[in-house]
Design brief:
The complex is a heterodimer of chains A (412) and B (235).
Chain A: H1 2-18, H2 20-58, E1 62-67, E2 83-84, H3 85-93, E3 97-103, E4 105-112, E5 115-124, H4 128-138, E6 145-148, E7 158-162, H5 164-167, E8 181-184, E9 187-195, H6 201-205, E10 207-210, H7 211-218, E11 223-224, E12 226-231, H8 237-252, E13 261-265, H9 266-309, H10 311-319, H11 324-365, H12 376-403, H13 406-411
Parallel strand pairs in A: 5-10, 7-9
Antiparallel strand pairs in A: 1-12, 1-13, 2-11, 3-12, 4-5, 4-8, 6-9, 8-9
Chain B: H1 2-5, E1 11-24, E2 27-40, E3 44-48, H2 55-62, E4 70-75, E5 78-79, H3 85-95, E6 96-99, H4 111-121, H5 126-139, H6 155-167, E7 173-177, H7 185-202, E8 205-210, H8 213-216, E9 221-226, E10 229-234
Parallel strand pairs in B: 3-8, 3-9, 6-7, 7-8
Antiparallel strand pairs in B: 1-2, 1-4, 4-5, 9-10
Classes of the chains: A alpha+beta (412), B alpha/beta (235).
Chain lengths: 412, 235
């Protein structure tokens, strides 16, 4: 059985080789589809993995409070709804909260080298526990300062930022250095340090100063952009979140169901991300699937042509003892080969494409969120799928070939 | 003389009142009209007749490529007129060796692969296929051409490969349809030489269709066909 299957594969491969141009053209249909599916899934999976890692770093024991409608990142500053230091005090008193801190993240204008830029200024609390919590959530430690130093609680007009600003000339061809004087909201500020890039774009883009200085600079004595809380060890995150919501509703005087704020555990935030990501991925894969369908039809078309062209060959094979099942097997293998080879090339192209996207994203956008990931089941699944598409497309042409009466097939 | 053997039960092919009718649009064409024919084991028979006489149709019937509209065809004692395509394919593969006018080799396969092809359909193990194909190539004096594709061989060489292919599964009967029709007389002569040798030395049963009297005379017996029936017998 295996021995002549091998021969059938050889026969099928022979005939594909003989019609090289057509074979390639047919396979293009499949490999574009497979390449699209592979790269979309690998990027989607990679992104999901990267986001999961980010959240893992942030920690499963963290909760965030934000005004409603803001999923992540710097909250909208023009919103009427605000969190304030009063909310922070409420959160700090919630049962099961070990430490909580607020962060003010405000848009600012920065001037340097006669170039003005609009950036974000993020606050760093002076309280040591709160400070540690912020540093931990941002995934930055003292030793991560590549150039200069970290902020001391007593620093006044000093600013730190990610090494992105050191490595890239962001101010009209000029990069920042330790000791540079820049103007923030009209005040002269000293650059004292650069921490290593975290991969989280929101952390990497912001300028960071001590909280009291930020409040002074932007004229916001009590506003908070977001509140981050760390639960006590072993606390039930769901219960802590519920208690926090209840207390905040009371202090902000809003009814249940009409909250103008949102308490999210890391897990909840993650699942929101995942849902959005999987919807986007599914839609894109749906589009790619259409191209696979077209590719399959292409194979079918090629196989029908092939059956017509090879009527005589079919007749000869039947005359020397090929059964209908032998003929259809040979044609099915041929169609399956078209699918599989096309699929293999598609997988290769897909991997190459998503790697290129990853490199470009890392270099140009400076984010490590876009990571290509190639789980074994993606590769194997794509191969099996492309083989299936090819074989299915070959079923009808193969049946047609098998049914040819030998005398008629030979008469041509 | 042939009549003497008939009824002894050693006839390997027997056609009894075989009819074949094709419908071409409105008209019915009777390609065979009550053909009776017997071939004995080890016999070399030529079937002659003008074009349209039904000789190719008769050949297709004996070769199990087609089934009659009416009548009985016994091949090795089995009535093939009632069999289905998959059974017919089995019989073709095991009992018939075809030699065609246009050689009918698979162009993408080498000479050796062409000879091995019928053995693949019979499920003969790979080692045996190689051995037998090489043996047969030697027999037709083409051992040095085994890896050549049909396009790289002359007409005579191609027909010799076809003969080797016909012998691959040690068939009961060799059917040759105008085997020299596409060859010049000298090459045709060589091919006929091989067929005669097969018949004489190996005792092969051969049925050959031709319209060339000279070629037909290589056989033990000649049957003349006209309008789908035998009109004359020669020994």
């Amino acid at each position: 059985m295996v021995s002549y299957l091998k021969e059938y594969v050889r026969l099928a491969a022979n005939s594909l080789r003989k019609r090289r141009l057509r074979t390639w053209l047919t396979m293009i249909g499949i490999f574009i589809g497979i390449a699209a599916v592979v790269s979309l899934i690998s990027l989607g999976q990679g992104m999901q993995k990267a986001i999961e890692e980010q959240f893992f770093q942030l920690g499963a024991d963290k909760l965030t409070v934000q005004t409603k409608g803001v999923a992540t990142g710097p909250p909208r500053s023009n919103s009427d709804v605000q969190l304030t230091t009063r909310d922070l005090e409420v959160v700090q008193r919630v049962q099961g909260v070990q430490v909580a801190t607020g962060r003010l993240i405000e848009p600012i204008t920065v001037e340097f080298n006669d170039k003005e830029k609009f950036l974000y200024l993020a606050s760093l609390p002076e309280d040591p526990d709160e400070r540690a919590l912020v540093m931990e959530s941002a995934n930055v430690e003292e030793k991560d300062f590549r150039y200069g130093r970290a902020l001391a609680p007593s620093d006044q007009l000093k600013v730190v930022m990610s090494e992105d600003y050191y490595n890239n000339p962001k101010f009209d061809g000029k990069a920042l250095r330790v000791g540079d004087k820049i103007t923030i909201e009209g005040r002269t500020v000293d650059v004292v340090g650069f921490f290593k890039k975290t991969g989280n774009p929101f952390v990497d883009i912001a300028f960071v100063m001590n909280e009291n200085v930020v409040r002074d600079l932007v004229g916001e004595p009590e506003k908070l952009g977001m509140i981050v809380a760390q639960a006590s060890p072993g606390a039930d995150m769901g219960l802590v979140a519920d208690a926090m919501e209840k207390d905040l509703r009371k202090s902000r005087n809003v009814k249940e169901g009409r909250e103008d704020f949102e308490v999210q555990t890391a897990e909840e935030t993650l699942s929101t991300f995942k849902t959005v990501l999987s919807i986007v991925t599914a839609v894109l894969i749906g589009i790619a699937a259409i191209s696979l369908l077209v590719g399959g039809i292409g194979i079918m078309n090629t196989m029908y042509t092939s059956v017509l062209e090879r009527r005589r060959e079919i007749g000869i094979m039947k005359a020397i003892g090929a059964r209908n099942s032998d003929i259809s097997t040979i044609f099915l293998i041929e169609a399956g080969l078209l699918g599989t080879i096309g699929g293999a090339i598609g997988i290769f192209l897909g991997i190459a494409f998503s790697k290129i996207v990853e490199v470009i994203a890392t270099l140009a956008l400076g984010t490590t969120l876009i990571q290509a990931s190639f789980p074994w089941y993606l590769i194997l699944g794509s191969l099996v799928f492309s083989f299936t598409v090819g074989s299915l497309a070959g079923v009808f042409p193969a049946m047609q070939a098998a049914k040819l009466p030998p005398v008629e097939a030979l008469r041509q | 003389m042939a009549d003497k053997h008939r009824g002894k039960g050693n006839s390997i092919i027997r056609l009894k009142n075989v009819w074949k009718t094709y419908t071409m649009g409105e008209a019915e064409v009777h390609a065979l009209q009550g053909l009776d024919l017997e071939v004995e084991e080890g016999e070399f028979l030529s079937i002659m007749g003008p074009s349209g006489s039904g000789k190719s149709t008769a050949m297709n019937m004996i070769g199990c490529l087609d089934i009659p509209t009416k009548g009985e065809i016994y091949l090795d004692g089995v009535n093939i007129a009632t069999l289905h395509e998959s059974d017919l394919a089995q019989i073709r593969g095991r009992k018939i060796g075809f030699i065609f006018q246009k050689f009918n080799l698979i162009p993408t396969l080498s000479a050796k692969q062409n000879i091995m092809l019928p053995m693949i359909f019979q499920g003969i193990p790979e080692a045996e296929r190689h051995e037998r194909a090489e043996e047969l190539l030697k027999l037709v004096d083409l051992a040095d051409r085994m890896d050549h594709r049909p396009g790289e061989l002359s007409g005579g060489q191609q027909q010799r490969v076809a003969i080797a292919r016909a012998l691959a599964v040690s068939p009961t009967v060799i059917l040759a349809d105008e085997p020299t029709g596409n060859l010049d007389s000298k090459t045709g002569g060589t091919v006929m030489e091989f067929l005669r040798k097969l018949h004489k030395e190996k005792g092969a049963t051969i049925v050959m269709v031709t319209h060339d009297e000279h070629v037909a005379k290589n056989a033990d017996r000649i049957e003349y066909l006209r309008d789908g029936a035998i009109v004359k017998r020669y020994k």
